[in-house]
Design goal:
It contains 18 helices and six strands. With 485 residues, it is mainly alpha-helical. Strand 3, helix 8 and strand 4 form a beta-alpha-beta unit.
């Protein structure tokens, strides 16, 4: 996207021979581009392929037309358009929007981007009046406005999808709130927890992801229109009026900042990358736990696939694909960050690269969130198999805590229990099954050994945020309020 007169900041205009068009240049008629009055010849065909962005920025047609309609109201308030001209222009833009939403292909090879395309189509339909639309506006502030509208809209859509995934997680946590499982650190059984507690850890992390998406929308909440190419419009442009029509809560305070920076887009992509990493974390658990070695869970068949060679396979492809997409989401952030890190002020053509990573993140996350929510709804925890594989060693911390309650310093208690665990491993048994002599140093050890169960361990942790059933119940109640259920 270039400035309103088509000049590229810091670039050199290639020499063009007047008269006959060289073989390596486009055969377009000079003037087909809306900025072509500056040039005598035509753009090289290779340069056209590098320059034209309509193939991807056409996704912004709604935002571009909505922005143009609001801009037209601003031109009317500035005295550039009469009431009759405004009505004609709005009717024309509405019809273009209707046609594009209906899937009509209105574009031509000469359309460099969605902004030029919309203006050309409008001018063909309403005549020379369409040429007034770009008054006081540059493609620099126009494209920033379009992309901000898109980011704000899509952040809201993605937040709703995250809420849908939270609802699926909540339902599953409610279903398994009283079922026990091993809690892991370092992929080693650590302490017993309730399955509901595990699932709610996903819920609360998703809640933070929603806050990041909201803040990305807030960061994109300053309207650029009226900034022009970089110095601001020279017309008495009613920016507040235009912003109100587009739903922007604020105006950009500086025209260079408005056209040059894409930190708000980076924030959106960063929020998407962090959300993708979270989805990948839980997808990895579900992949691991669906193996025959673990056999903790079973995904619904609709979210698995088979093998073209091995008839017995039921692969957790949904989770593997979601796990893989996290790299793509991080790549989108890295791609735009790399573009932005060395740009001089103000607008540079490099910024044409801001849109594709945003579009891809929206589409990738939208699909991943939908599949994850459906897959979680289909998820079944195999409680009997989980219980069978829970290792008694997870109760070692509870024995150490018991010794502390009896007056033993924790470091000494840790050492005593660690020694018992070592002896049990050497004997090929559980520390709970050691001979009574090994429990002699434990006060009332015989009675406590009978009491020491996985349920006992979990219920000792009813501190706010802990895995105890009272804590899980409180978490479920809070999650229910958040979901408005």
């Amino acid at each position: 996207m270039k400035s309103m007169m088509g000049a590229k900041a810091g670039s050199k205009t290639p020499k063009r021979s007047p008269g006959k068009t060289p073989d390596k240049t486009s055969k377009k008629t000079p003037g087909a581009n809306l900025w072509a009055g500056r040039f005598q010849g035509s753009m090289a065909s290779s340069m056209e392929r590098l320059s034209i962005s309509l193939s991807f920025d056409r996704k912004l047609f709604r935002e571009d037309i909505e922005g143009s309609m609001a801009h037209a109201h601003g031109l009317k308030a500035a005295g550039v358009l009469t009431a009759a001209e405004l009505a004609t222009m709005l009717a024309g833009l509405k019809q273009v929007l209707s046609d594009l939403e209906a899937g009509r292909d209105l574009f031509k090879p000469s359309d460099e981007d969605i902004h030029m395309a919309v203006e050309r189509i409008l001018t063909e339909r309403i005549g020379d009046l369409g040429k007034k639309l770009h008054t006081g506006r540059s493609r620099n502030d126009q494209v920033a406005t379009d992309l901000k509208l898109y980011v704000r809209r899509q952040a809201e859509t993605l937040e709703a999808l995250v809420t849908g995934l939270q609802a699926a997680v909540y339902r599953k946590a409610l279903e398994y709130k009283s079922a026990l499982m091993p809690g892991y650190t370092h992929v080693q059984q650590a302490q017993p927890i309730y399955i509901g507690h595990y699932l709610l850890s996903f819920f609360w992390a998703l809640e933070r992801d929603k806050s990041r998406l909201r803040h990305a929308s807030v960061s994109a909440g300053q309207m650029p229109l009226g900034s022009g190419a970089l110095a601001g419009s020279a017309f008495p442009y009613k920016r507040e009026l235009v912003a109100a029509r587009l739903g922007f809560p604020e105006l950009s305070p500086n025209s260079i900042d408005a056209t040059a920076h894409r930190d708000w887009a980076l924030e959106f992509l960063g929020a998407g990358a962090i959300l993708g990493a979270l989805l990948s974390n839980y997808a990895e658990d579900f992949v691991l736990w669906s193996t025959q070695e673990f056999a903790y869970i079973e995904l619904g068949e609709a979210y698995t696939s088979g093998s073209s060679m091995m008839p017995q396979k039921k692969n957790p492809d949904s989770m593997e694909l979601i796990r893989g997409k996290s790299g793509r989401l991080l790549g989108n952030f890295t791609r735009l960050f790399t573009v932005m890190k060395g740009l001089p002020h103000a607008y540079d053509r490099d910024l044409q690269e801001d849109k594709e990573p945003v579009f891809d993140t929206v589409e990738t996350l939208g699909l991943c969130l939908t599949v994850m929510a459906e897959a979680v709804d289909s998820l079944k925890f195999r409680k009997d198999e989980i219980e069978r594989k829970m290792h008694p060693g997870m109760l070692a911390t509870d024995l150490a805590d018991y010794l502390v309650d009896k007056g033993v310093a924790f470091r000494d208690a840790h050492h005593i229990v660690g020694r018992m665990i070592g002896k049990a491993e050497a004997a090929g048994t559980s520390f709970l099954d050691l001979p009574e002599a090994e429990w002699a140093d434990i006060p009332d050890g015989k009675a406590f050994r009978k009491k020491l169960t996985f349920a006992y361990s979990a219920e000792r942790r009813n501190i706010q945020g802990g895995t105890g059933s009272a804590s899980v119940k409180a978490q479920l109640a809070k999650a229910k309020r958040i979901l408005g259920l």
